[in-house]
Amino acid sequence: MTSTQVAIIGGGPAGLLLARLLQLSGIDCMLLEKRSRAYVLSRIRAGLLEQGTVDLLKDVGCGERLQREAMFHHGCDFVYFGETLRVPLTDLTGKVVTIYGQTEVTRDLMDAHAGAGTPCHYETDVVRIDDVTGDRPRVVYVQDGREHTLSCDWVAGCDGYHGVARQSIPTDTLRTFERVYPFGWLGILADVPPCSHELIYANHRDGFALATMRSATRTRAYIQVPNDARLDDWSDDRFWDEYKRRLGPAAANVVTGPSIEKSIAPLRSFVAEPMRYGRLLLAGDAAHIVPPTGAKGLNLAVADVRRLGEALDSFYRTKSPALIDAYSDAALARVWKAVRFSWSLTRLMHLFPDMDGFDRAIQRSEFDYLKGSRAAQTALAENYVGLPYV
Ligand code: APR
Ligand code: PHB
What we know:
Elements lengths: L1 E2 L2 E4 L3 H12 L4 E4 L4 H6 L5 E2 L1 H9 L4 H6 L1 E3 L2 E5 L2 E5 L1 H5 L3 E3 L2 H12 L6 E2 L2 E7 L7 E6 L2 E6 L2 E4 L17 E16 L9 E5 L2 E9 L2 E9 L9 H12 L11 E15 L2 E2 L2 E3 L5 E2 L7 H22 L3 H28 L7 H16 L1 H12 L5
Parallel strand pairs: 1-12, 2-3, 2-13, 3-9, 6-15, 13-20
Antiparallel strand pairs: 4-8, 5-8, 6-7, 10-11, 11-12, 14-17, 14-18, 15-16, 16-17, 18-21, 19-20
The structure holds adenosine-5-diphosphoribose and P-hydroxybenzoic acid.
The site of P-hydroxybenzoic acid has 10 residues, from loops.
């Protein structure tokens, strides 16, 4: 039986970053990722980083390419039925947001691990966790068709929404909270210049659209589609036409081109409590999902992992479990704020199929209030750029 101090399940951004933090603290860990390295790198996700996320990536030695290639934004646009409001994020909060694809964050973390002694094992499928309430839990995994066991002090469940970690918490202990939205986002990536130098969130009679980017030559664009939408029904031409119709004034600057990626993501809010059970600690999508409106998913995973890394570091340095004991409640306090923010931005900027005149009037008045109130814009900006770590 192999043995380590911390077994990390999942090699998405949460698992990779935790492994990096633990290595820098001199804590022995082993990361088990079901998929191949290439598969993990092929997943296209959001691309907006809070200042706290960027600072931590720099601290762990993953800031060099980011500093060179990322774009730094000082505001973003909200368009409501053709009317534009620019929220001056930096003027209101003193912070910037960083545009840098999550795929690039993943690649930088993988590269940082690539030297001798990488703790990451790919194509390694964790099937169950045994004795999670004992002193030495065991992670059982399959590699090359053979079953193996890893014994450890702590298990970090960084295995995403569909992983096994959360499922190891008994149903009479686990509480889940969920909102499934009646639409998804159809997103494309194309090698055409962005239509604006900042992001544009648009609410239109026919639904939401978002103009974002990966670089000065690569556009990421999304539109709201019904939950039963099929990719095959969305040619590039149909996508661009619909996107331009919804985007408002910036549509005139849209340059179209062939998509290099196209996918549909459903929207949901989900929280699992507690984030710790015995010697199992959950982080990232394994414990919570937010809709992409506001791009909190990765940033929230990073905030969890930062706290978890500190708690484990303190445990091994001082032998006190105090920070580990505090982990779940402290992490959940931030999680619920991000869940609330992304839910409220989703409500403000989308067409809900069951909306009546009253709902529309409330939505419009929320936009009008935002437009007229520096206080309301500050509240939005504070959440958008990322709440301070406490
Ligand atoms: N054994 C090993 N690995 C597993 C298992 C398993 N049984 N089940 C899932 N995994 C792996 C997945 O293959 C995936 O690579 O866990 C990883 C979880 O990664 P993400 O889904 O990216 O979740 P997380 O790291 O929490 O990322 C948080 O980044 O990926 C985005 O949408 C995500 O924005 C969110 C943020
Ligand atoms: C992205 O760049 O993919 C992105 C940006 C902001 C969001 C969601 C996605 O709110």
